[in-house]
Design brief:
The protein is α/β, with parallel strands linked by helices and 548 residues long. It has two domains: 293 residues, FAD/NAD(P)-binding domain, CATH 3.50.50; 128 residues, Fumarate reductase/succinate dehydrogenase flavoprotein-like, C-terminal domain (Methane Monooxygenase Hydroxylase, Chain G, domain 1, Up-down Bundle). The chain has 15 helices and 20 strands. The strands form five sheets. It has a five-stranded parallel beta sheet, covered by helices on one side. A five-stranded mixed beta sheet has the order 18-16-11-20-19. It has a four-stranded antiparallel beta sheet with strand order 12-15-14-13, covered by helices on one side. The relative contact order is 0.16.
Amino acid sequence: MTPAPLDLLVLGSGVAGLSAAVRAAGTHGLRTGVITKGGLDLATTRWAQGGVAAALSGNVEEIDLHLADTLAAGAGLCDFDAVRVLVDEGPRRVEELIALGAEFDRDERGNLELAREGGHSVARVVHAGGAATGAEIERALVAAVRRTAAVLHEHTFALDLMIEDGCCVGVQAIDPNGQVTQVRARNVLLATGGAGQLFAITTNPSVATGDGVAMALRAGVAIADLEFFQFHPTALYHPGIPRPLLSEALRGHGALLRDSSGERFVDEMLPRDVVSRAILAEMLEQQTDHVWLDATGLDHFAERFPTIYSDLVASGLDPMTDWLPVAPAAHHQCGGIVTDLFGATSMPGLWAAGETACSGVHGANRLASNSLLEGMVFGPRAIESIASGAFGPSATGAMRSVLGFAESDDPTLSILGVALPLPQTSTAEETSPADVTGTPVTNPHAASSSVTPQSLKRGLQQAMSTDAGVQRSAETLHRAALVITQVMADLAPMDPQEVAVAEVQNLAQIAQTLVAAALARTESRGTHSRLDYPGLDPAQAHRLVVGS
């Protein structure tokens, strides 16, 4: 007998997916299932260090200041209404998380400690264990989901969306035994996180392969803002992946960035894209592979930041006496699957929240510590909409870039959507190196007869890091496009139902779309920096949208 469809199937076990699952099953009694390709507690959320940004005082001026800081970081591409929802509802979501059992750091009087991070004009970031906020949030949510969810599919890989009559009705997945199965649901929420594994150096774990966005791309669902990928400026220069992250909170408490001569070269509290570019420029000028973070002046380091301290000690470093080697690392995908203010995508029955979504709150660059908040706010909003009987998108929030501005009170606050054709996949034979770049290029895979998914992934990551990372140009982007084309050609004869193959295929499809968008955006804005177009072009204050 085929089991009855779930009311809701959540893909992903980060803060967005788990927040949604808790509300769906616990508050609304929806029969809820969760699919995660690792264990329930192995999502990217656990690596989030800095904290959650929220104006917890409830003071209107402080809330408006959070809104202003978010809009400024987003470099003209935030959706005003989405940011308003984020900052207005954020404090309540933090309080709900505390009620679930999350324990944030408090001072000796029992008040929540607040930190200031880059791009924030005041201290408003709550944290746990100094820099273990994501792990604490995940701990509280995982416990709640295990109590309430009807079905848990751990170590299960979602292959593709199931679509009937233009609506999403579930997913095809590979179960822990390697068998392809179907999980049907009246509503599917994609909360699969980002695609940090696109790049050779990243703070993201190995599971961050952009599966949700890739599935949506293949289904023709609207995607936007993929050219905006945030690099965290201060990842520990270390051979491991994910790179240990030296939280922005360190700089908020007074840690300084120094060059190889010991001189400061940037205001440490500027937004992440600015600091990352400044570090890269310093590295190129001095021909080094890192700069230094000087935290020797911070008091009680081990007590304030026990997780970071442990990582440093394991690497043979003492932050009280040693300067810490740091370099930018891929950290957060600012764009993704376009949603309205309630998490609905352009396909009925399909919802998205968190890093996999383009809700409009980040624009061209995410404000530090707004990512956990986004998941905590928009995951539950999707559930409220599902519980009310909604099924398709409304012309609100970022979705106005797809559907138009019919419901906007002030169209000047909305961002126009410009269609970007889906890149056409061609074989390496159809596109020669000279056609793409004008100069001969040797592809590392072309002559190999023993290509593996792992080797293809490494080649893709290196190309994206070198040619489509912190800084780009038409020449480097075309060079990356050539490698992507070859990777796709080499993947073609492999088994698409092998998880390792499917993950690389997902990364390649996202890379292809990211590069196409980066080529089309002939300006520098936020995290998208073009060496050949260094200025910001007001005429390009729009979203580049793939699909519909």
